């Protein structure tokens, strides 16, 4: 499923009307009816229930008016409260308002103190609220009347169903400047928007329902370069294995990781590569730690590397050893728990920019390029970077706050500017390719905010590299799905090894989807 920016969704709506001849009123009817259905699911029987409908002057408000009509016909007691400039109301909005007036539905413009008082009384006794105050075109600071209305709605502490996006959430970025509607359910119209998945906006969405509202399917897939990593996409990401595969054909992975005090990162990353289906995984780590890894990692081979100091790799001999080693492997993962010793970082930069192999660059190996992201363009092959937002900000000599101002666009620019595939980890994961394609994953959960989770993701991607050309996407899907399986048993108490242990179940889920 595609994910639309606000401008793209506006263009899609315009094309449906002007190119296909689909009347705007028809789209509004479909949108309002879908929100009505969502309200029924949230509220159950609405007969004799009091419902406040809050509407702005745009078509988002018009959708809410249609919802009001359907709820009224089902026996609900409806009160509609309007804000916004009357001169900005569209013809379709005015048609819907006229219908409601003819039906005898109470409609009040919030223009006087008396009207606001009546709203406060209505909110006190209402059973639910329909939010059609602001649409996808909103961003930045809101006007005082909208701000006041949203605060009153939230303070009523009733279930709120939002039309398209919770009012106050910027649909492209998920930004919330002041306050936003705290929805129990949000009905995304046409396509989901980035703000449904990116925090803080994602915190206000509640249950997300997505409906095409009858827009021609071609328009919902045409020239949109943001895609949701969902079950439908997952079916295409990991081809079934041929019967005659062997360990050599499933991928020989070299993991360069670990240092004194961070041995777990190397274990998690290398084990994840195996759990993801790689045939052979070899861990190259500081020689003083080799005996520990020999005991801990039963299925993974180990190779000791010369140390710059105790428990930390570095120096000319270690670099030369790695160049020779790399010739024997299909894919290289470097960085997990490697440490930030100066000699280690120098080794990383020399190795990454010289080796001509598929590369996954994680954690401390990303740190080696901080403030020097331009050097990534000298890599012989397009590398895959797996930073969390703190690591991404440091790489760019920026801040997390600045990157979050437009997360999708900023990650896209990093991939294009530095000729790399970026797997940016946050409350949602964004995968950006140098050609401008963006993939967004809402899989995973807050329990995955635990040390080592990123090491498992990096290892998962590495383990998939010879199995699919879509390893970053498949890795993100498997990692998020495995995390959700783990959370179903452990909740916030899950640890990274729980994600690791559930990777086979996540792979099994893809195979099940493929057989449906």
What does this structure look like?
This protein is α/β, with parallel strands linked by helices and 516 residues long. It has two domains: 6-224, 3-Layer(aba) Sandwich (Rossmann fold); 233-515, Ribokinase (UDP-N-acetylmuramoyl-L-alanine:D-glutamate ligase, 3-Layer(aba) Sandwich), CATH 3.40.1190.20. It contains 19 helices and 19 strands. The strands form three sheets. The chain has a ten-stranded mixed sheet, with helices on both faces. Strands 3-2-1-4-5-6-7 form a seven-stranded parallel sheet, sandwiched between helices. Strands 12-13 form a two-stranded antiparallel sheet. Strand 1, helix 3 and strand 2 (77-82) form a beta-alpha-beta unit. Helix 16 packs across helix 17 (471-490) and helix 17 crosses helix 19. The protein is elongated. It starts with 5 loop residues before the first helix and ends with a helix. 52% of the residues are buried. The model has no long low-confidence stretch (mean pLDDT 96).
CATH class of the largest domain: Alpha Beta
Question: Please, what is the CATH homologous superfamily of the largest domain?
Answer: Ribokinase
The helix-and-strand class reads alpha/beta
DSSP summary, beta strand count: 19
Mean pLDDT: 96
Q: So what's the overall shape?
A: elongated
Helix content: 40-55%
- In CATH, the topology of the largest domain is named UDP-N-acetylmuramoyl-L-alanine:D-glutamate ligase
Largest sheet: 10 strands, mixed
Query: What topology, given as strand order, has the largest sheet?
Result: 8-19-18-17-16-15-14-9-10-11
Q: What proportion of the residues form beta strands (DSSP E)?
A: 15-25%
Provide the gyration radius in Å: 26 Å
Distance between the termini: 18 Å
| Count of folded domains | 2
Low-confidence stretches: none
Q: How many helices does DSSP assign? A: 19
User: Architecture of the largest domain in CATH?
Assistant: 3-Layer(aba) Sandwich
């Amino acid at each position: 499923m595609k994910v639309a920016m606000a401008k793209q969704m506006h263009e899609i709506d315009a094309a449906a009307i002007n190119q296909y001849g689909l009347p705007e009123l028809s789209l509004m009817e479909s949108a309002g009816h879908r929100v009505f259905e969502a309200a029924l699911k949230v509220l159950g029987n609405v007969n004799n229930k009091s419902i406040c409908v809050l509407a702005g002057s745009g078509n988002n408000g018009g959708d809410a008016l249609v919802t009001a009509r359907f709820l009224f016909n089902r026996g609900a007691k409806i009160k509609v409260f309007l804000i916004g400039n009357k001169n900005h109301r569209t013809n379709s909005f005015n048609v819907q308002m006229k219908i409601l007036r003819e039906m005898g539905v109470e409609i009040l413009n919030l223009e006087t103190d008396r009207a606001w008082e009546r709203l406060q009384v209505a909110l006190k006794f209402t059973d639910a609220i329909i939010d059609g105050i602001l649409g996808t075109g909103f961003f930045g600071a809101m006007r005082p009347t909208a701000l006041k209305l949203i605060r009153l709605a939230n303070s009523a502490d009733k279930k709120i169903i939002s039309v398209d996006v919770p009012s106050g959430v910027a649909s492209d970025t998920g930004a919330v400047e002041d306050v936003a509607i705290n929805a129990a359910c949000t009905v995304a119209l046409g396509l989901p928007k980035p703000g449904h998945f990116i925090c803080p906006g994602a915190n206000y969405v509640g249950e997300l329902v997505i409906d095409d509202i009858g827009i021609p399917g071609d328009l919902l897939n045409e020239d949109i370069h943001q895609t949701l990593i969902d079950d439908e996409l997952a079916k295409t990401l990991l081809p079934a294995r041929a019967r005659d595969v062997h360990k050599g054909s499933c991928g020989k992975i070299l993991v360069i990781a670990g240092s004194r005090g961070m041995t777990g990162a190397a274990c998690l990353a290398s084990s994840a590569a195996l759990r993801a289906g790689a045939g052979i995984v070899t861990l190259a780590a500081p020689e003083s730690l080799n005996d520990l890894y020999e005991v801990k990692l039963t299925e993974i081979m180990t190779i000791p590397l010369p140390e710059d100091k105790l428990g930390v790799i570095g120096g000319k001999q270690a670099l030369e050893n790695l160049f020779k080693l790399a010739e024997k492997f299909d894919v290289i993962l470097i960085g997990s728990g490697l440490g930030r010793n100066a000699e280690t970082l120098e080794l990383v930069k020399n190795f990454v920019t010289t080796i001509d192999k598929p590369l996954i660059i994680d954690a401390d190996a990303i740190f080696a390029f901080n403030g020097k992201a331009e050097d990534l363009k000298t890599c012989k092959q397009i590398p895959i970077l797996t930073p969390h937002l703190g690591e991404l900000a440091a790489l760019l000599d920026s801040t997390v706050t600045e990157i979050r101002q437009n997360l999708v666009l900023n990650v896209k620019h990093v991939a294009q500017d530095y000729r790399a595939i970026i797997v940016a980890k946050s409350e949602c994961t964004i995968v950006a390719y140098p050609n401008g394609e963006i993939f967004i994953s809402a899989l995973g959960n807050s329990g995955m905010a635990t040390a080592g989770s990123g090491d498992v993701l990096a290892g998962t991607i590495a383990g998939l590299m010879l199995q699919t050309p879509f390893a970053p996407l498949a890795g993100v899907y498997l990692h998020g799905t495995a995390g959700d399986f783990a959370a179903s048993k452990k909740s916030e108490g899950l640890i990274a090894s729980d994600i690791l242990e559930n990777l086979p179940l996540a792979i099994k889920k893809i195979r099940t989807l493929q057989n449906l």
